[in-house]
UniProtKB/TrEMBL annotation, chain A:
Keywords: Centromere, Chromosome, Nucleus. The gene is Cenpo. It comes from Nothoprocta pentlandii. It is found in: Chromosome, Centromere; Nucleus. It comes from the Eukaryota. This is Centromere protein O.
TrEMBL record, chain B:
This is CENPN protein. Belongs to the CENP-N/CHL4 family. The gene is Cenpn. GO terms for cellular component: chromosome, centromeric region; nucleoplasm. The lineage of its organism: Eukaryota, Metazoa, Chordata, Craniata, Vertebrata. Keywords: Centromere, Chromosome, Nucleus.
Amino acid sequence: QLLGNEGVAPSAEPDAAQRSARAVLEWKTRSVQDLLQLFYLTGLSGKRTKHGACFCLSTAYEGTYLGCFYVDVTVRPQVRIRRHSVPAFIPLQQLAARHLPADLKRFLSVLSDHLNAYVGRRYQADQLQERFSSHLGGTVQRNSLCNMLAFSYNTSGRSESFPFSARLLYGDPCRSLPTEAVVSC
Amino acid sequence: MDEIVAEYIRRTVLKIPRHEIKTMLQTWGFLSEAQLQTVNFHQTKDSVSREVVQLCKDNSADIKQAALLDIIYNHVYPNKRIWSVYQMNKSGEETDFFDLRDFKKKFKRRLQTALKNVTINFKEYEDNAIWIRIAWGTPYKKPNQYKTSYVVYHSQTPYVFISASVIRSTLPLLCQALAVASNYHDIREMELRSHCLNSLKDIVFKRYSQTFQTYYPRPLQERNVTSENVDLRIIQENKNEKERILRVNREVFGDGPQPKLEFAQYKLETTFKSNPSLDVSDIKEPFRCLVKFSSPHLLESLKSLAPAGLADAPLSPLLTCIPQKARNYFKIRERKGIFPGSFVSP
C-alpha cells in the first residue's frame, strides 16, 4: 500500500535516498510475505482477529500440499470455536471438549494430526484408484474418513479376473497408514 | 411380473423429462443397450413408458429393480422434495470403521422387527452418500410403493437428510433405526429445511464459502475488479459508503455462491415494547408474531440487499447467522438474542 501511494516526485529525477528507501521497503515486504508463506507451509498459521484469532491448518502428504482448513476462535471469556471449515466426520467437538479451553496449542496440534492423516488416507485411496485401475476390480470401497478400504485386485494388471480381495483398516485416526490388513483369495 | 411393479415403473418413467429418459435407464442398467436401442424415445412419453414396461416384463423386473429406478430418479431430481436435517449424538470415542454391510443389516433389522411390511432399498454413490428408500405399509397391508421416505446419509457424520413421506407416524421409527444402524444413541431434528439437498449438505458439512481472515491469499481467489465505465463527468458522492457496504457484505457472506434456501421463519414470543405514553405497556403477555421470509434463493437475495440500497449494512445477525447456525427456523424469546450455542457452533 505504501509503495502504491508513493506519488511521483515533482522533480524529474527521484532522489537517491528515496530510491533506497523504496528498495528497503520492497525488501521488507518481500521477506514478510516469504515468512508468511513459510508459516503456511509448516501446516499451522494464524492471524489475529478482533475476536481472537483465525488459524489455518494446511495439510500435505509426502510433499504434496492438499488444501487447508480454518478454525476461527474467540478468546474472551474463554477459548471457544466461533466458526470452522472442518469436515463433519472429523471429531472436532470431542477434541474441543477434551483440550479446550485449557490447551489451545495441544488442541491445534491434535486437530492437525487428524486432518493430515485424513487427507493422507484420502490421497492414497485416490492414487490407488487412479494409478492402479487396471489391477482393481471395480472401485475401491471406502467411507468418509477413508479409514476402511475394501477392494479386489490381481497382480498382473492384465487379466479379467481379480482373485484377491483386501480390506484395510486404519485404526489410528492420526495416522495415514493401515493398522490391519486382511487379504483373502 | 407383478402388475403393481409394472405400473410403478410406468409411472416413474413418466416423471422423467423426455430427453433424460434414455440416460436414466442407462444409469439404471437393468435393460441392456440392445434393448434400449429398440425403443423410440422421440414418441410420446406415454408410448415410451409402455415400451419400457414391456421390456422390463421381458426381463422379469421385480420390486427391487423398480425401487432402484426410483432412487436414481430422486438422486437426479432431489429438489422436487423437501428435506429436513437430523443430528445424531454419541458419547463413545472409539474409531468407527463404518462397515456398510453392518449398517444395512442393522437398519433393516430394526425397521422390520417393528414393522414387517416395509420395502427397503439402498444405493451407494461415490461421494460416500448412502441413499435409502423406504416404502411404508401397515401391520395389515403390504407396503404402498407410492408412500415413500428417502434418507441420505454420509458415513461417519452425525447428520442425516430425510425426506419424509406423508405418513408422519413413521418418522420416529425411521429415526431410531438410523441411529442404531450408524452407532449413535440419539437423534433429533434440526431446525433446517429446504428443497435443495445439496445446499443443506453444504451448510452442515461446511462446504459453503466462508470468509476466514488469513494472511495467506487463497490461490483460487482472484479479486474481480469490475471495470466500470469511467465517465469522468460523473462523480460518485457516496463512493466510500458504497465501498464500505461491499466490504462488510463480503466479510459476512463471503465471495462464493450461497447455499440455496427458500425461507427463513422467525417466531417471536416477546412482549410488546413501546413508547411509555401509549397505553399498551401493561400488556405483559408475549406478543405472538411469525415472520417468514421467502425467496427462490433467500441467502443470495439477502446478500444483495445492502448493495442494492434496500437495507443497511451490516444486516441483522438474525439473518446472516443462518448458514453458520445451520438453521432457518428461529424462536425469539424475551432475553435478547438466540439460544447460546454449545462449545462448537454446528
